[in-house]
Amino acid sequence: MIKLSVVAVVGWVLCFSNAQAQQQNKDSFTIHWTINPSPPFHILKGEYKNLGICDILIDKISKTLPNINHEVRVMPQTRIKYNAMQNQNLCFPCMIKREHSPYFYYSDVTVTHPPLGIILRATLAQRLAEENATYLSFTELASNNKLRFGRPVARRFPPELQEVIDEYQQTPRFFEIAGEDATTRVMKQVSRGRLDYALEYPTILRYYSLSHPVNDLTFLPTEELGYKNVPGAVGCTKNEWGTKAITEINHALKMVLQDEEYQAQQAFWQDISY
C-alpha cells in the first residue's frame, strides 16, 4: 500500500508539473518585432550597428518586459505593410503616429522627430533659396521640370507633402528607389548629382554625414510643414493580438522613456549641428 501511495504521489506531481508547464507555454505572449534596413532608425551593419533610433527602443522594451518573448525579423518595408494588411501579428517600432490607421494600433509617443525637410546639395540650395531663406516650398520644387526628386519606394509622407508627390509621381522626374537601405541610396544619388533633392528627416542627413564625411548636402525645412515636429510610435497589427501588444509596450514605455541611455541615444541622432 505504501509503495502504491508513493507511486501515486509521484505520478500526481509529474502530471501537475507537466500541466503547469503546458499552461505557462499557453499563457506566454510573444511580440513579433519587424525591422527593415533604414539607418539611422535601424542599423544592421557598420560602425553604428544596432545603435539606431529604434534598435535601442526594441532593446529597452525587451529588457523591461522580461516575462514576454521577443522575436525580431528583418523584412522590406513593403512586406511589413503587406503582412499587417493580411492581419499577421507584428509590431514595427519606427512609425509616424498618425490620427488613424486601418492596419495598425499605435503606442504612446516614443520619440519626437525633427521636422521633415528638403535635402539637397548646398550649391543648389544657394541657387534655389531666396536670400536669407530658411525653408523651401516642396510644391514649387515638384513643379520645376528641371529638378529630379527621389524617395524610397515604400515611403509615405504627411498629407501636405504626400498630396504633392501623388500629383507628380507619374512624371519622368520623380524616381522611386527600391531594395535594401533605400534611404541611404537616395542620399548617395543626391550627393552625386543624379537626383536633385529628397524629402527626409535631418537625422537621416546626420547619419549620412557621419558615414560619408565628404559630401555637399544640406537640409532646409519645407514651407508646407515648417518647423513642425513629428511624433513617432510603435505600430502593431490592428487585431486582438495587437491590442495586447500595445498594452504591454505602453506599460514598458513608462520606464523606457525615463532611461538615461535611451535618452542619450535619441539626443545623439537628433544632434543636427553637423
In spatial order, strands of the major sheet run 8-7-9-6-10
Shape: globular
What Rg, in angstroms, do the CA atoms define? 24 Å
Assembly form of the protein: single chain
CATH superfamily of the largest domain, please? Periplasmic binding protein-like II
How many domains would you count in the coordinates?
2
Proportion of residues in extended strands: 15-25%
Structural class of the helix and strand makeup?
Answer: alpha/beta
Average of the residue pLDDT scores: 87
CATH architecture of the largest domain: 3-Layer(aba) Sandwich
Q: Count up the helices.
A: 10
Q: Are there runs of 5+ residues with pLDDT below 50, and where?
A: 1-26
- N-to-C order of helices and strands: HEHEHEEEEHHEHEHEHEEHH
Question: What's the total count of β strands?
Answer: 11
Provide an overview of this structure:
- The chain is α/β, with parallel strands linked by helices.
- It has 2 domains: 31-112 and 230-269, D-Maltodextrin-Binding Protein, domain 2, CATH 3.40.190.10; 117-221, Periplasmic binding protein-like II (D-Maltodextrin-Binding Protein, domain 2, 3-Layer(aba) Sandwich).
- It contains 10 helices and 11 strands.
- The protein has helices at residues 2-27, 55-64, 77-85, 122-128, 138-143, 159-168, 182-191, 202-211, 240-256, 260-269, and strands at residues 30-35, 69-74, 91-96, 104-106, 111-113, 117-121, 149-152, 174-177, 197-200, 217-221, 230-237.
- The strands form 3 sheets. The chain has a 5-stranded mixed sheet.
- Helix 6 (159-168) links the parallel strand 7 and strand 8 (174-177).
- Helix 2 packs across helix 9.
- The radius of gyration is 24 Å and the shape is globular.
